């Protein structure tokens, strides 16, 4: 049998859930269902939704490629300043996104530390779709790193040590032992990464601007509609909530089912 929390804590927990749930209920209640199809099918809304999905998927793929090795370095390698390096990697989690956008502008803007040299080569990043992806990677990469670090620390190194002792190369050990063990944590981290990238606003508008079809993602479209058509803003906000909810439910629902299956097997 599951160990239930004390009744008092359960009541407080339910109240905490209500604090999170009530705003979303109000959001749904504020949608005019008769206008919903027209609001969601407008050219500006479709452009923003399509751009958001494309850039968020691209940013998630980039985070997968660079975040997995980064988590391994921070977890499995001992080097001076590792704690400080981890703090730097997690910094985008705590700084305001607009600060991240300013930092990206100072680095890759037309007059930035790196951007001015790229401009000499005819490469402009700021105010392009690439800038949107960079902003999304900047703010969402720590979510994947944190998830993978937790999975690596939980699993330990026993399986990898066994594979290495049997003659497997480090690369083969990673591909055949480490990576399969990381799949649950990797999926959870990718889900959070995608959801964070999809909802990114501050760094995007600061570094990439708001150009329809190029840099105006759905959160930026919501912000603009909030000034001119509040009902459209509510409808577009609902789209973001539904997409994020579906992604998170699919990923975490599978994890919860696997956990329940393991518990059932253990009791059996």
Automatic annotation (TrEMBL):
Gene3D superfamilies: MetI-like. It is a multi-pass membrane protein. Keywords: Cell membrane, Membrane, Molybdenum, Sulfate transport, Transmembrane, Transmembrane helix, Transport. CDD domains: TM_PBP2. Residues 49-251 form the ABC transmembrane type-1 domain. PROSITE patterns: ABC_TM1. InterPro entries: MetI-like (IPR000515), MetI-like_sf (IPR035906), ModB_ABC (IPR011867), NifC_ABC_porter (IPR006469), Sulph_transpt2 (IPR005667). Pfam families: BPD_transp_1. It is found in: Cell membrane; Membrane. The chain crosses the membrane at residues 7-31, 51-75, 87-105, 125-153, 174-195, 232-253. Its main location: membrane. Belongs to the binding-protein-dependent transport system permease family. CysTW subfamily. NCBIfam families: Mo_ABC_porter, modB_ABC. The complex is composed of two ATP-binding proteins (CysA), two transmembrane proteins (CysT and CysW) and a solute-binding protein (CysP). Part of the binding-protein-dependent transport system for molybdenum; probably responsible for the translocation of the substrate across the membrane. Part of the ABC transporter complex CysAWTP (TC 3.A.1.6.1) involved in sulfate/thiosulfate import. Probably responsible for the translocation of the substrate across the membrane. This is Molybdenum transport system permease. The lineage of its organism: Bacteria, Bacillati, Actinomycetota, Actinomycetes, Micrococcales.
């Amino acid at each position: 049998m599951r160990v239930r929390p004390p009744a008092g804590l359960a009541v407080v927990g339910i109240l905490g859930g209500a604090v999170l749930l009530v705003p979303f209920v109000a959001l749904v209640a504020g949608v005019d269902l008769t206008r919903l199809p027209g609001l969601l099918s407008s050219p500006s809304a479709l452009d923003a939704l399509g751009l958001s999905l494309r850039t968020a998927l691209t940013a998630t793929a980039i985070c997968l490629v660079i975040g997995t090795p980064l988590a391994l370095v921070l977890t499995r390698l001992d080097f001076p300043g590792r704690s400080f390096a981890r703090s730097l990697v997690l910094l985008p989690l705590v700084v305001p996104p607009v600060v991240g956008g300013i930092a990206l502008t100072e680095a890759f803007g037309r007059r930035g530390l790196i951007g001015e040299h790229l401009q000499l080569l005819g490469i402009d990043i700021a105010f392009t779709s690439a800038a949107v992806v960079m902003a999304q990677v900047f703010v969402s990469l720590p979510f994947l790193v944190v998830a993978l670090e937790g999975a690596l620390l939980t699993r330990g190194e026993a399986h990898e040590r066994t594979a290495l002792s049997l003659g497997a190369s480090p690369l083969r050990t990673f591909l055949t032992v480490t990576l399969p063990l990381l799949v649950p944590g990797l999926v959870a981290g990718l889900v959070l990464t995608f959801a964070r990238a999809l909802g990114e606003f501050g760094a995007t508008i600061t570094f990439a601007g708001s150009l329809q079809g190029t840099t105006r993602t759905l959160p930026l479209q919501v912000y603009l509609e909030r000034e001119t058509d509040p009902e459209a803003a509510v409808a577009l906000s609902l789209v973001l909530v539904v997409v994020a909810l579906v992604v998170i439910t699919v990923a975490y629902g599978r994890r919860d089912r696997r956990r329940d299956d393991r518990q059932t097997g253990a009791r059996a």
